[in-house]
Specification:
Blueprint: H1 6-27, H2 33-36, H3 38-52, H4 54-63, E1 67-72, E2 81-85, H5 92-103, H6 107-110, E3 111-116, H7 125-131, E4 135-137, H8 141-157, E5 163-166, H9 175-187, H10 201-213, E6 219-226, H11 235-241, E7 247-256, H12 264-287, E8 302-303, H13 310-333, H14 335-355, H15 358-372
Parallel strand pairs: 1-7, 2-5, 2-6, 3-4, 3-5
Antiparallel strand pairs: 1-8, 6-7
Length: 373
């Protein structure tokens, strides 16, 4: 591994430091609210973390000059929903924050992500994602079924209307994943895909059925993501080479809950049909000349401007860089601050060892209160 690129190093270092100290100085003092005022805890945690998401969005758009093209239907932040998207690279979820910001900045406070369980172990960022009550999945149906059911019950009990981002493919389209997808297709007599992976229908169907059982599903948003020029596959590529895609395209199509089949077999057929259509759309997208690559909206007449009013990004970038410098200065020059940081870190480590994360601590307390009532 060569020396890191300065742009990539600055990008990830700023995100790491701001998320680490943010979880220490902003979220940790609010932890008692999980017990005493769980609804207030969710309000503060969602707002703090949502505003932090402005930072990577500002770096991509305002600092790095990336272009984000969004077409299709508006995502409603006031209704519980499931968002499904093809998973081309390991950075899709981060670029999606820019799309949410363009549609409605409040979506950054109401989006919840289902992601690999290993990510909750990252100091700082992992702690913040635990506080955000993201769904950490192990790719083991038995274990993940409990996680999905418990988290959706938790959202429902607190009266929060979240939009849950799920990648039905289960992983990004790297070489190994593409090979496994092709082998699966051959074994089951399915078409070979060149731009998407075959979706995992069991997990998708279960998610839909649980959300239905909890009366926690109004809409399903099918999102297609495409990269017209550079495809940057991983965080390491950003760190080593400082490479970022010049542009990212998103198209959003909304389905109402009643539009989907009621049984598991029907849901499996539905998601497979959606993915066949997605493969065809992406095939047409990539065979077009690079300069003219774009999605024709599946539905809706929305076509958000590529340029973004910079004031929101400017304020977020200024706030997080300034406060991160203040936090670092305080840790270096004030011994009592170092002691505080130490105890905060010990708490997060203990919480993960004892409860498997802050999100599970909140779940257990929520269950106890529900049983008492």
């Amino acid at each position: 591994m060569g020396l890191p690129n300065l742009t990539g190093l600055f990008f990830w270092l700023l995100l790491f430091l701001s998320s680490f100290f943010g979880s220490i100085f902003l979220l940790f003092p609010l932890i008692p609210l999980i017990y005493f005022a769980p609804s207030l805890w969710r309000t503060f945690a969602d707002c703090f973390i949502g505003y932090w998401l402005f930072l990577p969005s500002s770096l991509c758009d305002y600092i790095l000059g990336m272009e984000f093209h969004i077409t299709g239907d508006m995502i409603n932040c006031s209704e519980p929903a499931l968002i499904i998207m093809n998973h081309r690279t390991r950075l899709d979820w981060m670029f999606f924050w820019n799309a949410l910001y363009k549609m409605d900045p409040w979506l950054l406070t109401t989006e919840k992500i289902s992601l690999k369980k290993a990510l909750e172990y990252i100091p700082g960022a992992g702690w913040a994602m635990q506080c955000a009550a993201y769904l950490f999945l192990e790719r083991n149906y038995k274990n993940d079924a409990h996680t999905i059911s418990d988290m959706i019950t938790y959202y429902k009990d607190l009266g929060r209307h979240y939009q849950i981002l799920l990648f039905p493919e289960g992983t990004d389209r790297g070489e190994r994943a593409a090979k496994r997808s092709d082998e699966f297709a051959i074994q089951h007599g399915l078409p070979i895909y060149h731009f998407v992976l075959h979706p995992r229908t069991t997990g998708f169907s279960y998610m839909i059925q649980v959300m239905r059982q909890k009366s926690y599903l109004k809409n399903i948003y099918d999102i297609t993501i495409g990269y017209p020029d550079d495809i940057v596959s991983s965080e390491l590529e950003v760190l080593q080479k400082g490479r970022f895609p010049h542009a990212v395209h998103f198209d959003v199509k909304r389905y109402k809950e009643n539009d989907l089949p009621k049984d598991d077999c029907g849901l499996a057929d539905w998601i497979n049909k959606i993915w066949r259509e997605k493969e065809n759309r992406l095939a047409n997208f990539y065979k077009t000349d690079i300069a003219h690559r774009k999605f024709l909206p599946c539905s809706g007449k929305n076509n958000w401007p590529v340029s973004t009013t910079a004031i929101g990004y400017y304020c977020a970038f200024s706030f997080w860089t300034t406060i991160s410098v203040i936090w670092i200065y305080s840790v270096i020059y004030f011994p009592f601050v170092r002691i505080y940081v130490f105890f905060a870190c010990v708490f997060y480590v203990y919480c993960h060892w004892q409860y498997a994360g802050v999100q599970n601590l909140a779940l257990q307390l929520s269950k106890q209160k529900r049983q008492i009532n």
